[in-house]
């Protein structure tokens, strides 16, 4: 890492802490106190001062927090709890003392959030050429429709002569894609639905990182309700959770592996819920500060108060901010239903089965069902 890179990282961490002073004053005060304690401990042990120390002017003090201290503080107080039996597990997951206030808020919101947990699943693949068991997260956004990220769907499908088709599996075998709405720690139960086809992958990388999949019934039974999109996009400072399947990241993505193992309990690829706050719009997308990893690609960002989906998580900047497609943008895709108005390569849409009746009578839900049945995430795809 160059000196410029190190300085930019320190500045990003300092900016995050400064923003936190307005968005979560209680957590900010706790982290600042911890930072002062770390500085005193380092001075007491005669540790050499870092060359890239930075003064946090917004604190009203003259504390100088170097890169080590900032790395320690940023993201403290943002745990990632297990989900078991479609319920949030508040015990058995290690959380820092600084997480106490947001855990209390999450506990109060649990009755609102838990009914929606069965609608969020892990996108699994069999015979995948890259020898991966799953690609990311997806959630029911409309009857029979799962929403996920473009970079997740592109791992299993590509544009063909008649719409999107699954890529060949390992050794030429057929690739099988499913979604399991469970995959909970130490819970053998499953809730599996076939991914029948890929409806749409946004082709323009400058636009939303979004894709839509057609899914079947769950274990031979009709699936649960789809999540409700929020009427309005979340605002800076709103309390939210991210629900998905964080996968272990290599050290070139998460340099502090001990921090990762502490937050995620050393257990990965299972359903987790991570509370946090929305941030300001950045680079044109919604942001949040919940703890996420690669398998969270495609996870839902849910408002704690209403239980409504406010965004689709798609990427993260390590220990600074995470990016998400806001609800208003997701709604625009559903309203337009691009899988019905155009097909890749100028092809003709496949025949559709009789239309489904959508309770909300939205145009996007009238014709949903057709007839045709991560490489490790990079640092920018968290």
Characterization of this structure:
The chain is α+β, with helices and mostly antiparallel strands. It folds into 2 domains: 71 residues; 304 residues, Thrombin, subunit H, CATH 2.40.10.120. Helix content is 23%, strand content 26%. The protein has 8 helices and 18 strands. The strands form 4 sheets. A 6-stranded antiparallel barrel has the order 13-14-15-18-17-16. It has a 6-stranded antiparallel β-barrel with strand order 5-6-7-12-11-10. The protein has a two-stranded antiparallel sheet with strand order 1-2. Helix 1 packs across helix 2. 43% of the residues are buried. The C terminus is likely disordered.
Q: Could you give the count of β-strands? A: 18
CATH-derived topology of the largest domain: Thrombin, subunit H
Level-2 CATH architecture of the largest domain: Beta Barrel
The share of residues in extended strands comes to: 25-35%
List the total number of helices: 8
Biggest sheet, spatial arrangement of strands? 13-14-15-18-17-16
Rg over CA atoms? 22 Å
Distance between the termini: 21 Å
Query: What is the N-to-C succession of helices and strands?
Result: HHEEHEEHEEEHEEEEEEHEEEEEHH
């Amino acid at each position: 890492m160059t000196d410029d890179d190190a300085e930019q990282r320190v500045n990003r961490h300092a900016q995050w802490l400064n923003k936190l002073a307005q968005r979560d004053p209680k957590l900010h005060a706790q982290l600042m106190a911890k930072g002062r304690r770390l500085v005193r401990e380092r001075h007491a042990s005669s540790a050499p001062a870092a060359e890239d120390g930075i003064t946090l002017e917004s604190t009203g003090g003259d504390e100088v927090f170097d890169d080590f201290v900032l790395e320690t503080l940023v993201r403290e107080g943002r745990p990632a709890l297990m989900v078991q039996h479609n319920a949030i597990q508040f015990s058995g997951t290690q959380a820092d003392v600084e997480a106490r206030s947001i855990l209390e808020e999450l506990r109060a919101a649990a009755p609102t959030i838990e009914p929606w947990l069965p609608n969020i699943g892990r996108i699994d693949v069999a015979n995948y050429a890259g020898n991966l068991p799953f690609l990311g997260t997806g959630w029911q956004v409309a009857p029979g429709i799962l929403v996920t990220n473009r970079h997740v769907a592109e791992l299993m499908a590509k544009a063909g002569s008649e719409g999107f088709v699954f890529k060949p599996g390992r050794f030429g075998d057929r690739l099988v894609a499913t979604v399991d709405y469970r995959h909970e720690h130490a819970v053998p139960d499953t809730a599996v639905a076939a991914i029948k086809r890929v409806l749409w992958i946004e082709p323009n990388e400058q636009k939303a990182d979004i894709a839509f999949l057609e899914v079947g019934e769950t274990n031979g039974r009709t699936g649960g309700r789809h999540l409700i999109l929020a009427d309005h996009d979340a605002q800076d400072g709103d309390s939210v959770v991210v629900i998905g399947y964080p996968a272990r990241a290599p050290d070139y993505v998460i340099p502090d592996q001990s921090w990762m193992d502490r937050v995620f309990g050393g257990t990965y690829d299972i359903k987790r819920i991570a509370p946090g706050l929305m941030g300001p719009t950045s680079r044109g997308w919604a942001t949040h500060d919940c703890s996420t990893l690669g398998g969270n690609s495609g996870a839902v960002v849910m408002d704690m108060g209403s239980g409504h989906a406010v965004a689709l998580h798609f990427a993260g900047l390590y220990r600074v901010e995470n990016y998400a497609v806001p609800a208003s943008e997701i709604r625009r895709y559903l309203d337009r239903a691009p899988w019905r108005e155009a097909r890749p390569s100028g092809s003709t849409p496949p025949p559709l089965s009789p239309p489904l009746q959508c309770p909300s009578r939205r145009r996007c839900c009238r014709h949903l069902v057709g007839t045709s049945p991560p490489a490790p995430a990079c640092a920018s795809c968290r």
